[in-house]
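About this split. The held-out portion is used to measure sequence recovery: a designer receives only the structure tokens and must propose an amino acid at every position. Recovery is the fraction of positions where the proposal matches the reference. Here is one held-out target exactly as it appears in the evaluation file.
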């Protein structure tokens, strides 16, 4: 009985922790400039109810089976997460990003849909936590990161390009694998993300960080030996996604390798399939494109890869695609 309770409580707690980031996201998406307090309260209440329901749902990931009271443990944790999120939100509601030179360069789709995660300073402070990005990917961050590193090899030679910064230790670990005579270029369209990246990288890291638009790279043709797109494509509308892939391929040398990691349609038996779908539809409006279309559909029509490989993870929820130019 005791072991069953502990196991069930642990399972429900894991679900609650995984749901926590979405509570934070939902609160941040309630625009700080909004003066309608009733609307903000309604958003908070609805998020609290939905998160409590998710946490205390009859799912149980343990082999022992459900135990009495486990749902109350999860409910308490979920309520704590909601209260902490609410406190963070209302304490920082006046910290909205002010329009300026840097903000003018942010693409409309990014500013409109992802300001809460990448543009707002509070978003950077919240999401730059290894455990949190791992929870958002349901415990698969390290596995997917290592899949990229294994693909590129223990010692990455030549010139490597990472398009867009990544929360967590992905870039740090990638830099550690760069050969002594190699170089890693990391580009992002947001100065705040590049500043955050520089804080994570140690002194002497073989990394050059630069401000750039993934759909309009300034590099010459055939500059890089390998490139990486780690959870970038699902955040872009189709027209931008096509240009990003075209640019990533353009700057690769013949025989160069592009490694793409992103979402994929999970199997019908995946327990998260029907939970993630509405979440992604609201918070990541372009992500479901990758559920319904193959990444190859967005490659340039006149491009013929020398090699194309796909590997699926976590019951098909994530994919790694390797494109050899």
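Reference sequence for scoring:
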């Amino acid at each position: 009985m005791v072991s069953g309770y502990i196991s069930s409580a642990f399972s429900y707690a894991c679900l609650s922790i995984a749901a926590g980031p979405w509570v934070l996201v939902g609160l941040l998406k309630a625009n700080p400039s909004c003066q309608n307090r009733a609307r903000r309260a309604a958003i908070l209440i609805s998020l609290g109810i939905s998160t409590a329901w998710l946490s205390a749902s009859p799912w149980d990931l343990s082999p022992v089976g459900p135990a009495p009271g486990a749902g109350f443990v999860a409910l308490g944790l979920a309520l704590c997460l909601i209260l902490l999120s609410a406190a963070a939100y209302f304490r920082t509601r006046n910290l909205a990003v002010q329009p300026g030179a840097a903000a003018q360069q942010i693409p409309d789709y990014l500013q409109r849909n992802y300001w809460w995660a990448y543009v707002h300073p509070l978003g950077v402070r919240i999401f730059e936590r290894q455990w949190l990005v791992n929870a958002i990917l349901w415990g698969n961050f390290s596995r997917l990161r290592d899949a990229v590193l294994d693909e590129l090899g223990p010692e990455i030679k030549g010139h490597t390009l990472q398009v867009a910064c990544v929360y967590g230790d992905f870039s740090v670990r990638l830099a550690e694998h760069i050969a002594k005579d190699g170089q890693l270029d990391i580009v992002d369209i947001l100065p705040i993300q590049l500043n955050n990246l520089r804080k994570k990288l140690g002194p002497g890291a073989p990394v050059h960080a630069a401000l750039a638009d993934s759909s309009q790279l300034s590099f010459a043709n055939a500059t890089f030996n390998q490139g990486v797109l780690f959870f970038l494509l699902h955040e872009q509308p189709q027209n931008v996604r096509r240009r990003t892939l075209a640019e990533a391929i353009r700057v690769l040398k013949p025989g160069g390798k592009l490694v793409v990691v992103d979402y994929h349609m999970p199997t019908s038996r995946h327990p998260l399939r029907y939970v993630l779908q509405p979440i992604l539809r609201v918070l990541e409006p372009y992500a479901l494109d990758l559920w319904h279309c193959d990444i190859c559909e967005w490659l340039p029509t006149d491009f013929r890869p020398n090699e194309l490989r796909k590997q699926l993870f976590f019951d098909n929820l994530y994919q790694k695609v390797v494109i050899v130019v």
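Annotator remark: Strands lie at 159-163, 183-188, 207-211, 224-230, 252-263, 307-313, 318-324.
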